[in-house]
Amino acid sequence: MLKSTTRFKNALPGLRPNPVTKMPRKFNGKLKSMLSVTVFSALLMALSSCGPQQVSVAQAQYFSTDTGLQTGGIKIIPIKTTKGSFRVWTKRIGNNPKIKVLLLSGGPGASHEYLECFESFFPNEGIEFIYYDQLGTGNSEVPKDTSVYDLNRCVDEVEQVRKALDLNKDNFFLYGHSWGGIVAIEYALKYQQNLKALIISDMMSSASDYNKYAKDVLANQIDPKVLSEIREIESKGDFSNPRYMELLMPNFYAKHICRLSEWPEPLTRSFNKLNQTFYTMMQGPSEFGLSGKLSNWERKGYLSQITVPTLTIGARYDTMDPEHMKWMASQVKSGSYLYCPNGSHMCFYDDQKNYFQGLNKFIKGIAAGEQTVKL
Question: Keyword annotations for this protein (predicted)?
Fold first, then answer.
C-alpha cells in the first residue's frame, strides 16, 4: 500500500523580488499628498463599515477554541493495551459541532503528514477534521513490543480515540485511506452505532481480490524484463537491495502511487518516517499484494452489514481496482461512489479537483440529512 526505503528531495525554485520602479522626483510631493488622502479615506471607510458584526457566525465558530490552555488543537490520548498503556498524538483543525472527520492514514505505518493537503480544502467548507498518528507512527509512541501491530487492537484504539475526542453518531465521520480503510471497515462492523458516516478511500475489501489485481493487472503493465528483475529480487527476499526501489520508483510508484513529476513535500516527509516494522508485519515486504498478517483479510461478504452512509473512492491509476471500489458502494446499505479519472493511490494530490469536490459534497450532504450523495 505505502512503502519507502529511500529519501526524496524536493527542490524549491528560487524566488526573485519584483523590481521597484523609481518615481521621478518632481512627482514625489504630489504623490505623497494623494496617497495620504487616499489612505486616510480608506481607513475611515474601513473603520465605519468593518466591525465584529461583519464576521460570519459560521467562521467565528469554526475558528473558536476551547477554554483553558491552548495547544494548537493538539491532544495526547492515553491508549490501553494488553501490553501496557501508550500515548497517541492527535490534532484538531476547526470547530464544527455537526461535522468531525477523523483521518486514518495508510501504510501501514505512515504518519498523518501525507494528508496535510486536506488543510487546503476542508477549512473553506467549515469541515472540522482531526489528524491522528496511530500507535507506532509519526508523533505517537512507538512500542518496543511489536505484537501490538494487530488489526483488532488497532480498531479498539480508534474507539478509545473516539471517546477521548467526544465524537458521536451525530457528528463522527470516519475517513480511512489505504490501510486506514481496512481499519475503518473493521471499526464500522464493530462500532457503527457511533458513526455518522464512513469514508473508504483507495482500499479494496478483499486481500485475495487485491492480490489478484496486483498480479493480473498492475504487474502486467510493467515491462517484462523489469518485472522479471523485480521478481528475482523478491524471490531472494532481498528487499533492502537499493536496486529494488530503483526499479519500483519509475515503473510502479510513479504510475500508481503518485503520478506527479515532483512528489509533494508532505508525502515524501511521511514516507521517510514510515514504520517499516509495522508495514512489513501487516502488509508484507512486497508491493505486489498482501503477504503479512493481512494476507487472509476478507470483508466482501460483510459489507451489507454496514448501514451508515458510506462513501468509497476509487481512481483510474490506483493500486486498488476502482471497479471493486464502485462495487463496494453497491453492497453497503447507503453507498455513494466517487471516481477520480486522473488519480492514483494518492488521488488527493494528483486528482485534487475531482477528489475534494466529491469528498466535500458527500460530507456536507450527509450532514444535511442525505443518506446517499450523487457524485
Answer: Aminopeptidase, Hydrolase, Protease
Residue 46 lies in a domain: no
- Please state the three-class secondary structure of the chain as a single string: CCCCCCCCCCCCCCCCCCCCCCCCHHHHHHHHHHHHHHHHHHHHHHHHHCCHHHCCHHHHHHCCCCCCCCCCCEEEEEEEECCEEEEEEEEEECCCCCCEEEEECCCCCCCHHHHHHHHHCCHHHCCEEEEEECCCCCCCCCCCCHHHCCHHHHHHHHHHHHHHHCCCCCCEEEEEECHHHHHHHHHHHHHHHHCCEEEEECCCCEHHHHHHHHHHHHHHHCCHHHHHHHHHHHHCCCCCCHHHHHHHHHHHHHHHHCCCCCCCHHHHHHHCCCCHHHHHHHCCCCCCCCCCCCCCCECHHHHHHCCCCEEEEEECCCCCCHHHHHHHHHHCCCEEEEEECCCCCCHHHHCHHHHHHHHHHHHHHHHCCCCCCCC
Where residue 373 sits, what CATH number does that domain have?
Answer: 3.40.50.1820
**The total number of structural domains that make up the chain:** 1
Task: For residue 16, tell me if it sits in a domain.
Answer: no
Residue 33 counted as domain residue: no
pLDDT digits (tens, 9 = 90+) for 183-226: 999 999 999 999 999 999 999 999 999 999 999 999 999 999 99
Q: Which residue has the higher pLDDT, 27 or 133?
A: 133
Give the residue numbers marked as catalytic: 178, 318, 345
Q: Which domain holds residue 152?
A: 60-375
The answer to pTM > 0.90 is: no
